[in-house]
Automatic annotation (TrEMBL):
It holds the Pfam family ABC_tran. One of its GO terms (molecular function) is ABC-type ferric iron transporter activity. This is ABC transporter ATP-binding protein. Belongs to the ABC transporter superfamily. GO terms for cellular component: ATP-binding cassette (ABC) transporter complex, substrate-binding subunit-containing. It comes from Kumtagia ephedrae. The keyword Nucleotide-binding applies. Keywords: ATP-binding, Cell membrane, Membrane, Nucleotide-binding, Transport. Residues 4-235 form the ABC transporter domain. SUPFAM superfamilies: MOP-like, P-loop containing nucleoside triphosphate hydrolases.
Amino acid sequence: MVKIVIDKVTKRFGPFTAIDAMDAVFDDGAVTCLLGPSGCGKTTLMRMIVGLEQPTVGRIFFGDRDMSGLPPRKRNVGMVFQYPVMYQTLSVEENIALPLTQDRSLSAQERDKRIDEVLDILDMRDKRKLFIGDLDAGSRQKVAVGRAVARRSDIVLFDEPTTNVEVQAKLLLIRAFKLVTQRLKQTIVYVTHDQTEAMTLADCVALMRDGRIIQYDRPADLYATPATEFAGWFLGNPGMNFMPARKTAAGIETPLTAAPVAADAEVSGNGTLTAGIRPEHVRLGATAAPGAVPGVLKDLSVTIAGRFIANVRIEGDTIVKVKTDEAIAARPGDTVYLAADPAGLSFYSDGNRVAAAVRQSQ
Ligand SMILES: Nc1ncnc2c1ncn2[C@@H]1O[C@H](COP(=O)(O)OP(=O)(O)OP(=O)(O)O)[C@@H](O)[C@H]1O
């Protein structure tokens, strides 16, 4: 197992900077998901790790080995693409065996053992003799995963491997993928712009924006304490609510709290902040309750999981999205009441998190 070290790496294409002075360490034996909007540099970073592109500035290390200038074949990195090259006229086992046959140090017995092992983990023993052309897109991607991991390279990179797989097969593929990574303990870097996939698979998520990693955290921590407004907005469906807040002598005032709240850290300056809270940390009621603020229900919709999402207009024309499991006896246009769970309230200054709320001050 080796860790991947990105050491002050910049990648320019002509005048355009795709990766901007990036420093990062992707832990050995862990699954790191590169997550971010289209064009933020995920694929470019991946291509530099595998050696298909060279950094304009900086270096990439595998453990303490400097990879500068080394071509892909000297890096021993497995890779699974969106559209993997599969040989239609070869069987599942022959496709998985291909990279293994190039390794002359492997005996035929060892080769068979490795094929057995991945077919077993991928639950594909019964498909061993089938041709690739006989498989659906999800199963073909499973074979691609098997082929990449069977080499037992220290590092395996995945570039949006589930993009072309339909939803049901995607879930099975992700489950199979999790089993593979847990069993084989390779260092995995996985590119996706699907946050559910990243949250399900990753040990750590590297959230990218404009050629930089803006937060590197465990999925639950990234979701619970986004370090930037961007992270709060990007993660979650719907993302975090934001509204103006103000620091006063009594605490921090927000339109969502009846009284000022205390912050868990010293907030410098004296003035404007932004408060952020996730839709599931706001309680919606049809009647007034202590600590709740009034608003007007704009609309209420039911989501796939049977949860409700409400849009409520509160003071200052702020629209607050609320996620709730409970039905509410109110219609659009009615007055409703919102109560914020202080534990879910964070404060941002210039887009960066500066504190969280601790309690309602009296
Ligand atoms: N060979 C190239 N020449 C010029 N510009 C490039 C090249 N490769 C990538 N770029 C630019 O670099 C930026 C980052 O691209 P990249 O493909 O790494 O983003 P991404 O995060 O993987 O996006 P997506 O999710 O859409 O695949 C984009 O603006 C892209 O147009």
